[in-house]
Amino acid sequence: MRAFSSFYKRFLAAALCCLMLFPLAGCFGESRPEGADQQILFHLGEDPSTLDPQIADGFAARVAVEALYEGLVRLDENNEPYPGAAESWEVSSDGLTYTFHLREDAQWSKSIVTEDGETSSSSTPAPLTAADFVFAWQRAVDPSTGCPNADSFSVIQNGEAILQGQMSPDSLGVQAADDHTLVVTLENASGDFLNLTATAAFMPCQEAFFNWTSGRYGLEARYVCGNGPFAFSNSYSWDHEEGMALRRSSSYHGENEPLPASLELYTSTKAVDVSDPVEAVSGETVDLASLPSDQVDDAQGEELQVITQEMDAVWGLCFNTQDALLENADVRRIFVQTLPRETLLENLPANAQAAGDIIPSTFLWNGQSYREQAGSNLYLKQDDSVTQGLSSLLKRLDLESMPSITVLGPEGTQNMLNQMLITWNNSMGNYFNLETLSETDLEQRVKEGDFQAAVCALRSSSSTPVSLLSLFASTSEENPAHLQSQSYDQLLEQAASGGDSGLSALQQAETFLNEQAVFYPLYYTSRYYTANPTLTGVVIHPAGQGIDFIQAGKEG
Questions:
Q1: Both 518 and 539 in a single domain?
Q2: CA dihedral for 152, 153, 155, 161, sign (positive or negative)
Q3: How many CA atoms lie within 13 A of 259 on its CB side?
């Protein structure tokens, strides 16, 4: 039974006020679909450090930002764009110029901020304008902002030069032709650009409100001003120890009306216990919860919904390139090319599928399957003859034998890891070690560089090849191999600009990781959720990009 916390009491009071202030019919029309006007309960898993869209990162932040803000487009259940803050757009014949027409009734959730930095006495929400997008995008691409997804703006004219500090942010190829017309010029035609505009970094930002917050933008409910389908119930409805209480925004005008009356996003176990997600959903503590793969059968046995996001992560053998031994690519290749791939794939963890490539088949490039354009099964192939060069390699390294290393892996992969060790023991005449850890501990060890080799996961911040491969960039804080390669970084820069040259650069970058034995793909895993049987209309975006609750309802 859910604890009736102080947070929940405040939320309930705010929700009742909202129901009195905003009749259930809403401002979109008198007819309400079945399942509308419900309270939706979800556990984010953690409290976002910020809800500033230009620097927010991580799954929890993306879910909250999508509820509170809206980009030029939204993404449907097929990850296809449909009108968001822009009601329509045109694309030039060469694919380089996008002209977006904003909704004339689009508004912010709060009233205007005057020039002296005070909120005006007017109760009328501030209008959303094209200038709000210009300010947000220029801010995102400014290196001093520290936008974690700034590379996404490389597709826009001058974006890469700005990121490299060669041009000023106001040189970005975006301009407000008038209050309701935004013109964007790209470096190269990109079939993925519209989808990018639905992501957090591309959300608008009202400059006057941003300045008024004096560096506190996105840190508390009162310092958030969104244009999305939901808004904070009041200035105190973000409790960092418990969660966020959101209500349907009365100032929102979009393609679809928001169906939920309210959205409660828990951030800790202090508010609700979701340690057993099946029990939490079946007991109506929450309506939707992340589900470990080993509990899929349990959820189905309780007749709950099970939602699957295919190929959410790619797992593979990753080497610490800063290790004194494994910094050598020839050493890494011996460890990889002696592996009996077929035997390893016979010992996959439950609910995993074999991975022949670092970039999954679900990822798109210019609106089409990247794998169909780049080829498949590009992993470094087994070659038992590689050990013939072992003696000369050891001599070159001034070693008498191959030093023993320890390989880390997640719980459930011990059989696979044992097969690796048996092979290495036999082929290199030494004994090697393994250590299995929880996924959380494994991720931390890899992030800190406290490992030599590890079977670990790559999770992209978006379903684009550039995003996944950028994990290995020299400047990436999530770089699992701790790779420092100027040539690889240059390929990423070329890829980010899009076009045919971008595809070629992506192919070369992926080939680099394979042939240099930086990361050896083994298997893909999916992300699972379990949901209340009555829950409908929830859109879960791929690659951990977040969840859209705008059309969520409970039927029956």
A1: no
A2: negative
A3: 21
Residues 537 and 519 in one domain: no
Torsional sign, CA 526, 320, 450, 477? negative
* Interval 331-383: pLDDT, tens: 999 999 999 999 999 999 988 999 999 999 989 888 889 999 999 999 999 99
The pairing of strands 406-410 and 453-458 is parallel
Cα separation, 69 vs 50, whole angstroms: 14
Question: At a CB cut-off of 8 Å and minimum separation 6, what does 479 contact?
Answer: 471, 472, 473
- Reference 14, options 36, 39, 41; nearest CA is 39
Return the DSSP state at 119: B
pTM: 0.83
**What is the count of structural domains for the chain?**
3
Residues present in the chain in total:
556
Domain that holds residue 252: 1-68+228-304+532-556
The DSSP-derived string for 67-95 is HH---SEEE-TTS-EEESSEEEEEE-TTS
User: What CA–CA distance (Å, rounded) separates 515 from 525?
Assistant: 23
Beta bridge partners of 230: 248
SS3 516: coil
Q: Which burial class, exposed, middle or buried, applies to 370 when counting CB atoms under 10 A from its CB (0-12, 13-18, 19+)?
A: buried
Question: At residue 361, what is the residue type?
Answer: S
Q: Do the beta carbons of residue 59 and residue 544 sit within 8 Å?
A: yes
CATH number of 140's domain = 3.90.76.10
Alpha-carbon distance of 483 to 472, in angstroms, equals 6
